[in-house]
Amino acid sequence: MPGHYRPRRKIVAEINVVPYIDVMLVLLIIFMVTAPLITQGVKVDLPQADSQPLPKDSQPPLVATVDAHGNYFLDDGSSNANAHKQLSAQQMVVKVRALLQLNKNRPVVVRGDKNARYEQVIALLQLLSQQAGVPSVGLMTQPDDH
C-alpha cells in the first residue's frame, strides 16, 4: 500500500552500564571481605609471654619471621605479596638495610615460630643486629592467657 508508511524505530546508541556497576559493586564487596584475611603472610605459632604491645603512635614495625623450618620472611607492612616470599640470610640483610635507610627509627621485630629451633631465632637476631645494623630488635609473642 503506497499510503501506509511505517514509522522507523529510533536506534538507541547508548550502552546500558547498570550491569557493569552491579558487577563492580559485587567485586568491591568481595575485596572488602577478603582483604583482612590476607594480612598475615606466614603461618607461625608464637610463644606466649607477658609483654607490653608496641605504642599505638609508633610506626608499623618491620617484621622478620622465622618459621618452624628455619625459613626467613620479611613483612614491611605494605600490602604486597613480599611477606610470603622466602628470603636467604643475605637477602634479609639487604632488604632490612634498604628499608632502614628510608626510616632509621622504624622498629624491627622478630617473629619466631614456637617450634623453630632456638639457634635459628638467634641467627636471625645476629643477622639483624650485626650485619643489617639494626640498633634494637624486639621479639613478638602471643599474649598470655591468664
UniProtKB/TrEMBL annotation:
Gene3D superfamilies, per database record: 3.30.420.270
Span of the signal peptide: none
Membrane topology designation: Single-pass membrane protein
GO terms for biological process, alphabetical: cell division; protein transport
Record keywords, A-Z: Cell cycle, Cell division, Cell inner membrane, Cell membrane, Membrane, Transmembrane, Transmembrane helix
One Pfam family this sequence matches: ExbD
Highest taxon of the lineage: Bacteria
GO CC terms in record: plasma membrane
UniProt name for this protein: Tol-Pal system protein TolR
Gene source species: Celerinatantimonas diazotrophica
Phylogenetic classification of the source organism: Bacteria, Pseudomonadati, Pseudomonadota, Gammaproteobacteria, Celerinatantimonadaceae
Gene (UniProt): tolR
